[in-house]
Amino acid sequence: MATASKPPRFGARGRVLELIRSTGPTSRTELAVASGLTQATISNVVKELLHDGLIGEVGQAASTGGKRRTLLRLSPDSRLGVGVLLGAEAITLVVCNLAGEMVSRMKTVGAKGMTPQEAVAAIARSVEFIVEDAADDAGRIVGIGLAVPGPIDRDNGFMTRALKGDLWEAWAGFPLLAELEKATGMSVAIDNDATAAAVGEYWLGAAEEAAAYACVYMSAGIGAGLVLDGTPYRGVSSNAGELGHISVDASGPTCPCGNRGCLELFASPSAIVSKAKLEAAAGNLDMAFTSNIEEDLGRLGMLGMRGDAVAHEILRSAADLLAVGIVSLVNLFDVGLIVLSGPAFVSTGSIYLEQVGQALARAALSRSVHPVKLELSFSTRDSAALGAAVLVLQEELDPRTRRSVSVSAGSGIPSVSWDPGP
Length: 422
Known about the structure:
Layout: H1 12-23, E1 26-27, H2 28-35, H3 39-51, E2 55-60, E3 70-74, E4 80-86, E5 90-97, E6 102-109, H4 116-134, E7 141-148, E8 152-153, E9 158-159, H5 176-184, E10 188-192, H6 193-204, E11 212-218, E12 222-228, E13 231-233, H7 263-267, H8 269-281, H9 293-305, H10 309-333, E14 337-341, H11 349-363, E15 373-376, H12 383-397
Parallel strand pairs: 4-7, 7-10, 11-14, 14-15
Antiparallel strand pairs: 1-3, 2-3, 4-5, 5-6, 8-9, 11-12, 12-13
Helix pairs in contact: 1-3, 2-3, 4-5, 6-12, 8-9, 8-10, 9-10, 10-11
């Protein structure tokens, strides 16, 4: 009998589809046993999935003495989802199929220096290009998943981040979801980038066996996506996991968020690069800098990996601080797995794995009961974009997971107003 790790919580349709995806060819009887659903429910759901072309019958299992069972298999390319990761330094787009396989990928200039309207127009052009490249039949595209930095208003489709002087300050309240739907003519689902990355890690295979895990996602800021008992934990307003805004120094400087001594003040990519610039100015570090923090952090990581003592120490110190936050996260939620993901870990991952791993072995309260596994993402750059595509596939294919947004009569576009202010 086919076996599978526990799938995320869907409705009956979504759960059956996920079991078929994760187990490979399987029978109706095996689906009933694995899902806990009745044979009648399985029969009805399978009939619907066959009708929609999402699965197909692929022969029969070997006889065990009775009637041979018909095997069912996912039709992975029957539906495609577009995932968009909105970043300051880069905007990444992917197209993936129902099996979570990446069909196409592209990377464009980031949103830094763009108005929200300009960014929406740029994303719409990129979506048109990548869809044309990936799909001979645009009807297979179910929609766009958009991963953005938090905090967000997920139901109404906009970012709420209004920290003074922050890159995303001008985006606060801008109806991003509605405007992107208008510009592309497609359904759009929005989520926090760290949550999307956590979902992406499940589909990439890093977290399939973990009942509770966290994806620590570091790009411009530091966030964490939590998956508990197979379900993304979003909190009351879909803003759980703001790891960068836990305090690591109660008497430290005031963060724009209002807290004191936030982790991001000391360990975010911009903070790391700022420290590197000071060392370079003092003649201790031979490194040229650009206006792109992501690229600068990558260069610093390469120097550290090649044995530059100053570069390595800067990163080790930042990793130790991040480890403080991760240990707190583990102690709060008792997760069994931490996955490090995001552009910041592309060239620095080994340093972070060492420092965070030591901290977890030393300080995680649950260490005597179970070890906390620590892994680097299978795709540090793309897990959030992939997760965003998966989220929109889930929302379109499993009605139980659809978002609830107020829609103007006849428009198909959420009713969200935005006042950009003076």
